[in-house]
Design brief:
Layout: H1 9-25, H2 33-37, E1 45-49, E2 56-60, E3 66-70, H3 73-99, H4 104-107, H5 112-121, H6 123-134, H7 137-155, H8 159-162, H9 164-172, H10 182-195, H11 200-209, H12 215-220, H13 266-274, E4 287-293, E5 304-311, E6 320-326, E7 336-341, E8 350-352, E9 356-362, E10 368-373, E11 375-376, E12 379-382, E13 385-388, E14 390-396, E15 404-411, E16 414-415, E17 445-450, H14 458-467, H15 471-478, E18 486-492, E19 497-500, E20 506-508, E21 517-518, E22 526-529, E23 537-539, E24 545-548, H16 571-585, H17 592-599, H18 605-616, H19 622-628, H20 643-659, E25 674-677, E26 687-688, E27 694-699, H21 713-723, H22 745-764, H23 773-776, E28 778-781, H24 786-789, H25 792-798, E29 800-804, E30 816-817, E31 825-829, E32 831-836, E33 844-847, H26 864-868, E34 873-874, H27 879-885, E35 888-894
Helix pairs in contact: 1-9, 3-7, 6-10, 7-10, 14-15, 19-22, 20-22
């Protein structure tokens, strides 16, 4: 059996028990209410910090959202570092230890494997190269100023005053946070890039599937993008002549040259599954919605822009709302920007200044390739020659344990990631490769080619976007946005709207990146990157709006470069477009209220296709027929109180499991979910069962949030196609002791409805009148460390929830869930914003949690109830609107001028 997923439980449970004991003592010798409140930020009065040239005013509203006013850019970013640290330093510290592969220094030996993998990738090393060699002097100055602000906060607070978690950690560990370094901010971009890295999981999954399915069956599970039904982002090319993307500019791609290249990647997949994905689980859920409507079609006469990134729910939330304002905007101090920031990074990531607004969604370009490597006594095979691979030593310090040393090996293709698991030495042992491949010996190693391991100047783009005043400035800033590759939507106060696809996106020689490719053959190498000026863009398209929701960027027939085949399939994007078009075609105009309604739309577009088939099935069992009748007249909305949504989604989950999930290899199924199956080959031990059939027991290996089929819109497309073939082999499923088998579509649909009825009876009760979607579809917000691994009472103290939510996977209101793993929510709109270019003070925003990272603070989750109900906060940006909402004023002064705290 494969090794189980390692846990941080040992040391974290000790820390968590300390928290529990201290909380239970209440007013004990060490722990008291005053200890809890010691970490709460000072939000009024004056504080002197080193390095400021003039006072900076921090205006906070009742939700703790700060707006900063300073005389110089450096003062603003120094103050931003200080304020971020006030509210979120524990989160910042955990993040930087993760990006540097140093979690073991905080949490002990259970994190060594994760650290070893991260050291192998070398995020921190690449970030240091970027800071040293790629970033502009101005960007470096801002990063230094931000770090000085963080360190000013650390210098004046004891460990216990920084965060409750440190107070607990201090009792079991002598850990002390180090000073913040500029590279700590740059490295966070690598975490963003990792969680938004594109199709690596699809590449691995396809390789797994070839071991049990035919090539034709694999392709059925990865259907073509439906360009005839779901519009890509760019349909009106942005060049002067309407066509800057000639399709005959490149020679024919050698796609398919790596067909059949597959390997037993289970150990690598387990390692990836164990990675602390700070932004969310991999797969179709990671994405976002954004759209912008031209003023010709809005009630304000100016553009409206919306954005809601879909990321993993976490506590505190990944975003931090903030404004950065120069008291007098000038060439020397050009910042007057407000929006969503990352604690630990200077600048605003998504938002608006006083001239433009912008939003981001994941483009999803294929920027990773797994390369099979033939290693031999210190060498790797490359074009018929033996080449010495590179090595470096890494020391991993372990809290409460001995320092570990690892060796990182690299080829010209990238770091060898298959070294980082106890079973990976056998990796590739059964890979079916093309003729001419080297003798497999004990198997192939695997290296990772990834754009984020190339030093770039992406951090420059953040400041460029913050100060852009028009379309040309915006596009110039976007050219620096190398990783992660994002869809950028744009609007300005002059009435223009636009779209730009930025990113470092490779041009491949042979192959198309769909399967692991032979590293010994240089013809599969990346030959170049797409030039920034040749990436797709649009400006003021005639249709009057632009929608991005992780769908295809542009039809392949209209573009000469290959971006990826693994798009989201356009369900969300087309629904948004349909709602916009419905208003425009009726002669109406889009209002702020319409933008909110679209953002909160929870229609299940697959249900519109599937339910008519379900209602045609004749159900003889009245117990099941009662449930089937919940679908009669259901309007396909997934409201939290909807019994129809509850039953439909249960049917969908069971349908996928019966038709597809039970036929997938163990590496894709939920961990510990065991099935008796025919062996993939004759090398596995067989067991005779009743009837003489020779089967083996295989247990799943994926975590519930990453298993397949996840039920997202790729599976919408798979099932949509299968519905047209009622005799497809996919519809067959064996009988069990509880239910009859199925041989065709209608029999399997009947079985899925039956199984869903019994499943929901167990979960929600016999009375279908009491069923509702929200009771199944729950959101828990978990503290990022102790809240996930600590004992139940500690999780109760630090975590919040549950919330019963509307929405669903690939609804516009994308409160996603993994159909293979259950109904609990795995990704959410991590924030929502709607920006009015007519009057910025009329804009709206809401965060998933709150400004504070302190578990007992009033602003810890004060926005969550509003967010869960689909409500928003007013978003002030002018000085007058900010002051009207301000409830606390803190003045940060240069050292030597403060009157004291």
């Amino acid at each position: 059996m494969p090794a189980k997923k390692p846990r941080r439980r040992g040391r974290l449970i000790v820390i968590a028990l300390v928290v529990l004991l201290m909380a239970g003592l209440g007013y004990g010798a060490y722990w008291s209410v005053s200890t809890v409140r010691a970490s709460f930020p000072q939000v009024s009065g004056e504080i002197a910090i080193d390095g400021l040239s003039a006072p900076v005013s921090v205006e906070r509203d009742a939700n703790g959202i700060p707006q900063l006013y300073g005389e110089t850019s450096e003062d603003l970013f120094r103050a931003q570092g200080y304020v971020h640290a006030q509210d979120r330093f524990w989160e910042m510290d955990v993040r930087r230890h993760m990006t540097a592969g140093r979690l073991s220094e905080m949490f002990g030996e259970d994190q060594v494997e994760t650290d070893a993998f991260l050291r192998t990738l070398g995020w921190h090393r690449v970030a240091q190269e970027e800071f040293d060699n790629e970033l502009s002097d101005e960007t470096k100055d801002f990063l230094v100023a931000y770090s000085e602000g963080v360190n000013a906060y650390l210098a004046e607070h004891s460990v216990e005053e920084i965060s409750v978690e440190y107070a607990a950690l201090d009792l079991v560990n002598d850990y002390r946070p180090e000073e913040w370094q500029p590279v700590d901010s740059v490295a966070w971009l690598k975490a963003m890039a990792w969680d938004l890295r594109g199709n690596m999981e699809d590449e691995i999954d396809r390789a797994f599937l070839t071991e049990r399915l035919t090539p034709e069956q694999v392709e059925e599970l990865y259907p073509d993008y439906p360009y005839d039904r779901n519009r890509p982002i760019v349909t009106e090319n942005g060049g002067e002549n309407g066509d800057i993307y000639p399709v005959d500019a490149l020679p024919d791609d050698a796609a398919g040259a790596a067909d059949g290249v597959s390997t037993q990647l289970s150990s690598l997949a387990e390692t990836l599954d164990e990675m602390p994905a700070l932004l969310g689980p991999s797969g179709s859920g990671i994405g976002s919605n954004s759209w912008v409507v031209h003023g010709d079609y809005t009630t304000t006469g100016a553009p409206l822009l919306a954005n809601d990134p879909h990321l993993a729910p976490s506590l505190p939330g990944v975003w931090y709302q903030m404004g950065l304002h120069c008291v007098e905007v000038s060439a020397e101090c050009p910042y007057d920007v407000s929006g969503f920031t990352f604690s630990g990074m200077p600048g605003v990531i998504i938002g608006h200044n006083q001239d433009i607004a912008w939003g981001l969604t994941n483009l999803g370009a294929d920027v990773t390739d797994l390369r099979l490597e033939k290693l031999d006594h210190g060498n790797y095979l490359r074009d018929g020659e033996q080449v010495a691979y590179d090595t470096r030593k890494e020391e991993i310090r372990v809290a409460g344990g001995e320092t570990r040393e690892i060796t990182v090996r690299s080829t010209v293709n990238g770091p060898i990631v298959s070294d980082r698991h106890e079973e990976l030495e056998a990796l590739g042992g059964s890979a079916p490769v093309d003729a001419g491949a080297p003798d497999r010996g004990s198997g192939y190693a695997i290296s990772l080619n990834w754009t984020a391991l190339e030093p770039t100047n992406t951090m420059d783009a953040v400041f460029g976007l913050n100060t852009a005043t028009d379309w040309d400035d915006f596009r110039a800033a976007a050219q620096d946005f190398a990783v992660p590759s994002q869809n950028l939507v744009y609007a300005d106060t002059e009435g223009n709207i636009g779209y730009q696809a930025p990113g470092l996106i490779p041009i491949r020689g042979a192959g198309d990146g769909r399967y692991p490719s032979p590293g010994w053959d240089s013809s599969y190498d990346w030959v170049d990157y797409i030039a920034p000026e040749e990436l797709p863009w649009e400006f003021n398209p005639e249709r009057g709006y632009i929608v991005t929701a992780n769908q295809s960027v542009i039809a392949p027939a209209e573009y000469r470069y290959h971006l990826t085949d693994d798009w989201s399939y356009g369900t969300r994007s087309q629904r948004i477009e349909d709602l916009i078009q419905a208003t425009i075609e009726d002669g109406g105009k889009i209002s702020m209220g319409d933008m909110q309604a679209i953002q909160l739309d929870n229609s299940n577009e697959m249900a519109k296709v599937l339910v008519p088939y379900l209602l045609e099935i004749e159900i003889s069992d009245p117990y099941v027929r009662d449930a089937q009748e919940l679908l009669v007249g259901w309007d396909f909305s997934q409201d939290a109180d909807s019994p129809g949504a509850a039953y439909y989604n249960a049917v969908w989950r069971n349908l996928l499991q019966l038709s597809i999930g039970n036929k997938l290899p163990k590496e894709l199924r939920v961990e510990d979910q065991c099935l008796w199956v025919s062996p993939a080959d004759d090398s596995e031990p067989l067991e005779d069962l009743d009837g003489g059939e020779r089967l083996i027991e295989e247990c799943g290996e994926r975590s519930p949030e990453n298993a397949q089929p996840d039920g997202g819109d790729r599976w919408f497309e798979v099932v949509r196609n299968l519905l047209e073939d009622p005799e497809s082999d996919w519809w067959s499923t064996p009988a069990t002791s509880q239910a009859a088998g199925a041989e065709n579509r209608d029999e399997l649909l009947a079985r899925a409805m039956r199984d869903a009825r019994y499943e929901l009876t167990a979960k929600l009760g016999k009375d279908i009148d009491t069923w509702n979607w929200g009771r199944l579809h729950r959101l828990m917000l978990n503290n990022q460390t102790l809240g996930t691994e600590g004992p139940g009472p500690v999780q109760w103290l630090l975590n919040r929830g549950p919330w019963n939510l509307a929405g669903g996977a690939d609804a516009v209101d994308a409160s996603g869930w993994n159909a293979a793993g259950g109904y609990d929510i795995t990704w959410v709109p991590s924030m929502r914003m709607i920006i009015s270019l007519d009057a910025f003070d009329d804009s709206l925003w809401i965060n998933l949690t709150g400004a504070s990272g302190h578990a007992y603070h009033d602003n810890y989750t004060d926005q969550t109830d509003l967010w869960s109900r689909g409500e928003y906060l007013n978003w002030p940006s002018s000085p007058e609107a900010v002051m009207e909402r301000s409830t606390n004023t803190l003045t940060l002064t240069p050292s030597g001028t403060s009157s004291g705290e």
